[in-house]
Design brief:
alpha/beta, Rossmann fold, 6-stranded parallel β-sheet, two-stranded antiparallel ribbon
Length: 165
């Protein structure tokens, strides 16, 4: 069974897990454009993307909109439960899911996914259950590394590269 859906945590995977506040109280996050290009490529291949994150942020909502990620959930306490509901909606199973997370609130979701990824700077507790510990740190291309790993594993590497010919 192929991977049809990737599920992304945000803080610590799409970002370096830092939250910066301006003097005015504005929240600042940095995203890696390499991750964005890989996410866009995954979508161009007809695959699905979801963001399931524990915090709520207008910045993350903006990034999800920029990347055209239609399955976007924030302020989520039980990520696995939300993922299970999404799978019913999409008529998929956990066998079709690859997920990335970095901390304890991702643990149950990562255990449930067919393939789980963690950045190299993830919690040691999620490292123990991950299918793949990436060489990249969160916010430093970890999502891209995950997607490129899947491209090879799923036999999509040629199609992936043809997107940019």
């Amino acid at each position: 069974m192929s991977i049809e859906l990737i599920v992304l945590d945000v803080d610590g995977t799409m970002t370096d897990s830092r939250i910066t506040y301006s003097e005015n109280g504005d929240e600042i996050k940095s995203f890696n454009v390499k991750d964005g290009l890989a996410i866009a490529s995954w979508r161009k291949l007809g695959k699905q993307v979801a963001i399931i994150t524990g915090r709520s942020s207008n910045i993350v909502a903006r990034r999800a909109k920029e990347l055209r990620i239609e399955h976007f959930y924030q302020g989520i306490h039980n990520k696995k439960e939300v993922l299970e509901e999404l799978l019913v909606k999409l008529d998929l199973s956990m066998e079709n899911v690859a997920a990335i997370g970095d901390d304890l609130n991702d643990l149950q979701m990562l255990k449930a996914a067919k393939i789980s990824f963690v950045p190299r700077d993830a919690s040691v507790y999620v490292d123990k259950i991950a299918t793949v510990v990436l060489s990249s740190r969160g916010g430093d291309g970890a999502v891209r590394e995950m997607i490129e790993h899947l491209m090879v594993k799923e036999g999509l590497e040629k199609k992936y590269l043809e997107l940019w010919d």
